[in-house]
Write a structure and sequence with these properties.
heterodimer; A: 371 residues; alpha/beta; TIM Barrel; 15 helices; B: 254 residues; 10 strands; catalytic activity (chain A); 2-iminoacetate synthase (chain A)
Chain lengths: 371, 254
């Protein structure tokens, strides 16, 4: 067994992988659709241009598989931005070091003001988000935050800078359940271009973060790429490869996937590659047809119309009422956001919409006493 | 009538509370099922909240609550969760679910046996979810289990009784009630489980995810009753050939 994903990853070439996806034919797609257990080669066919005419069929199969596994329910979660301090330069991010915004890290008192709003909305699951500022927002800081928040939430997730295994081992017993760490892109050279400065520019440290999380025994981890940086089909193949590797190796961990499309922020990057709504539906269905158990998550980056329609196609969790600036719920609602959100409906409105579509909103799917 | 520990059940259909499109539909479906034992995932309910969406819908005298430990990964976590559930829900019944594998939700036989031993000593009525493993069932009996709950096929798969050969062995040698749990996808699967002599079945996904959960719950109720009646009435044996002549032994009559 290889010690980490890099070893496996290095046996693949981006260009050859890309080419093999684009060479898939309608016969490959039909074979993939007919299989009951699907391989990574089937997945390539399902995300290839050749699968476009089969989208409705993919959607039907994806819907059935999702209903069977997850039922007529949708989990809701909400991000809580703790800090926008960041020492990284990332070309696509509003919190990038070279972006002239006022920096803020919430104090415990301010955090509790924000929490009061989230609890009022009905939330019991929270996703903590920060930039990467290792001198102020570090493991000791996170320990304090978990102790502060644990009594108030059934499930706590984090989307923060990658940490070492020992850090995760400290945080998990304090109530850290889920960690999201997106590779942004698996294209090694382009990754360097988009992350020219800061700790994040270390491609391999980021690539091996899920291994460190798995070794630390995290309950759930979320993977994904930022769609728009590179060819989304190739990046999604590597996401699926990563997922398959992790599932086999860290079999006690649950997995979720996200597929954020690059959104505008002030002075930000234009997507190199545009992904249409039709293509995003294709990707969602392809992920579901490859893996019936993985959670698929969609954020408020996406539009109202799009979110309302993809609910029944494979998505199992969504955010609602999100603010992407520290203090956005109560403390400083007008401060600069990390990215613009598109669906601005309240959690209550999302709950009503889900009910109308025959879905129960799940606010709580974990309990402190299980961890 | 089925007796498990100190309770007598008229219905042999046990039900789950997950995956329904609304709490109202869940309530109606469970009422239609005639079920008297209803499992509740601890992770889904707020034990401190009297108004909890799921718990408040189960407030009927016929529903006995069976909290389950879904989410725990080992015996230690399971025992802790069971104790919290006993305190909050005032029942010493526990459905022991230890599946450290969140993908296929396969029950861990080693940790389940450990936890059953410990919980039985602590006075719990333990109903463990397990593989259709006849030897494990005998170990669980010795550990003080109140029943065994072997799976028919992977949980939530609707694939039916893929483990039927092992279920038959378990049923034939069990001294505690056998409840077929997981994988029952259609009323015919439930009827089949009852025909081979299972004491009860537990159904969730097939009811919750159907187009009309209330009607499907009633269909399961009828199927379980029919299957049980067939078991009691004794089925005729199945022959794959006609038995009117005896070509091999008729010479004995000559």
């Amino acid at each position: 067994m290889t010690d980490n994903f890099t070893t496996l990853f290095n046996t693949y070439s981006w260009e050859r992988t890309k080419q093999s996806i684009y060479e898939k034919t309608s016969q490959d797609v039909e074979r993939a659709l007919g299989n009951s257990k699907r391989t990574l080669e089937d997945f390539k066919a399902l995300i290839s241009p050749a699968a476009a005419p089969y989208l409705e069929q993919m959607a039907q199969l994806s819907r059935m598989a999702t209903l069977k596994r997850f039922g007529k329910v949708m989990q809701l979660y909400v991000p809580l931005y703790l800090s926008n301090e960041c020492n990284n330069i990332c070309t696509y991010c509003g919190f990038s070091l070279d972006n002239k915004v006022r920096r803020k890290t919430l104090s415990p008192l301010e955090i509790m003001q924000e929490v009061a709003v989230l609890k009022e909305m009905g939330y019991d699951h929270v996703l903590l988000v920060t930039g990467e500022a290792n001198h102020t927002v570090h493991t000791e800081y996170f320990k304090g935050i978990l102790e502060l928040l644990r009594p108030h939430f059934a499930l706590i997730s984090m989307e923060v800078q990658p940490l070492d295994t020992e850090d995760y081992e400290v945080l998990i017993p304090l109530g850290l359940n889920t960690v999201l760490v997106y590779q942004e892109t698996y294209h090694r050279e382009d990754y360097k271009k988009h992350h020219p400065k800061g700790k994040k520019s270390n491609f391999e440290y980021r690539l091996e973060t899920p291994d460190r999380l798995g070794k630390a025994g995290v309950h759930k981890m979320g993977l994904g790429v930022l769609i728009g940086l590179e060819d989304w089909r190739t990046d999604s193949f590597f996401t699926a490869l990563h997922l398959g590797y992790l599932e086999k190796k860290y079999w006690q961990t649950k997995y979720s996937l996200s597929f954020p499309r690059l959104r505008p922020f002030s002075g930000g990057l234009e997507p190199k590659v545009e992904m249409s709504d039709r293509e995003l539906v294709q990707l969602i269905c392809a992920y579901r047809l490859l893996n019936e158990e993985v959670e698929l998550s969609i954020s408020t980056r996406e539009s109202v119309v799009f979110r309302d329609h993809v609910i029944g196609l494979g998505i199992t969790s969504m955010s609602a009422g999100s603010k992407t600036n520290p203090g956005g719920y109560a403390v400083e609602p007008e401060s600069l956001e990390q990215f613009e959100i598109s669906d601005e409906r309240t959690p209550g409105e999302i709950k009503d919409m889900l009910k109308e579509k025959g879905y129960e909103t799940v606010w709580k799917d974990w309990d402190r006493l299980l961890q | 009538m089925l007796t498990i520990a100190d309770k007598v059940f008229n219905s042999r259909l046990f039900t789950g509370t997950g995956k329904f499109s609304s709490a109202e539909i869940m309530e109606q479906a469970l009422l239609a099922s005639g079920s008297e034992l209803v499992t509740v995932a601890l992770k889904r309910v707020d034990l401190k909240d009297q108004e909890d969406d799921i718990l408040s819908r189960l407030n009927y005298p016929q529903f006995n609550l069976l909290p389950n430990t879904s989410g725990v990964r080992n015996a230690k976590e399971a025992v802790f969760a069971a104790q919290m559930a006993r305190e909050a829900l005032e029942t010493n019944w526990i459905k022991l679910e230890i599946h450290p594998d969140p993908k296929y939700l396969m029950p861990d036989p080693i940790e389940t046996l450990k936890a059953t031993e410990e919980l039985a000593k602590l006075g719990f009525i333990v109903l463990p979810y397990i593989h259709a493993d006849p030897v494990l069932c005998k170990h669980l009996e010795s550990a003080g289990t109140a029943a065994v709950m072997p799976l028919g096929s992977p949980i939530g798969s609707n694939k039916g009784l893929k483990t039927i050969d092992f279920l038959e062995i378990i049923i034939s040698q069990s001294n505690v009630p056998v409840i077929v749990d997981a994988g029952i996808g259609a009323p015919s699967d439930a009827a089949k489980a009852m025909e081979i002599g299972a004491d009860a079945v537990l159904v969730n996904t097939a009811i919750a995810v159907s187009r009309d959960p209330v009607k499907m719950a009633e269909a399961f109720k009828i199927a379980v009753t029919a299957g049980r009646m067939a078991f009691e009435a004794k089925l005729g044996s199945i022959n794959s050939y006609a038995v009117s002549s005896s070509p091999l032994t008729s010479f004995l009559d000559d």
